[in-house]
Design goal:
The protein is mainly α. Helix content is 64%, strand content 3%. The protein has a two-stranded antiparallel sheet.
């Protein structure tokens, strides 16, 4: 009996410790937004994984980005746009060259970029979300909270293009669910 009680205490202690690692976002908005972001990023990773490495240099037209360039652009800009518009940091674009990276390196870049944004979602506080910023391309003034939607929309735009590259090459793309 004493052994069973010790096992139960050990399980409860472990559960409490593991539960503390699950950091919850600080605001109602970011608590609502986090699962949306996680679903979008997981789908993007599925698209990146679906394309064979030998087709990462594929592009449908001369003026298009390659599949790899689409993925590197996503990986790089999710962090850049978050720093610029959500966090209000001064950043200078300096994207890596996709043709010099392997599929594994690009997937790692995507995961790192998504993790950066996820950490911001977890840690940003309401006063900063309420601040406004001016969007570089449109000149629109939006809240920093709204800018998180821009980060996701920009990612989705390029992911959708990359998804078409998969179809054009006769590969069944990952199913989209919401």
């Amino acid at each position: 009996m004493r052994k069973a009680v010790n096992v139960i205490y050990a399980l409860l202690f472990t559960t409490v410790l593991l539960g503390q690692d699950e950091k919850e976002p600080l605001t109602p908005f970011t608590r609502m937004y986090l699962p949306v972001w996680q679903t979008a990023t997981e789908h993007c990773l599925e698209v990146a994984r679906a394309m064979p490495e030998e087709l990462y240099n594929y592009k449908p037209t001369e003026v298009s980005m390659t599949f790899g360039e689409q993925m590197v652009h996503i990986a790089y800009t999710v962090e850049l746009l978050t720093k610029r518009y959500v966090q209000g940091m001064e950043v200078v674009p300096d994207a890596p060259e996709a043709s010099e990276l392997s599929k594994t390196e690009i997937l790692s870049m995507l995961e790192n970029g998504f993790e950066y944004v996820t950490e911001v979602i977890h840690s940003i506080e309401q006063p900063q979300l309420d601040e406004t910023c001016v969007m570089y391309h449109s000149g629109n003034t939006v809240s920093r909270a709204f800018a998180l939607f821009y980060v996701q929309d920009h990612m989705n735009n390029h992911r959708s293009k990359a998804n078409l590259y998969i179809r054009i090459n006769g590969i069944q793309p990952p199913g989209y669910t919401w």
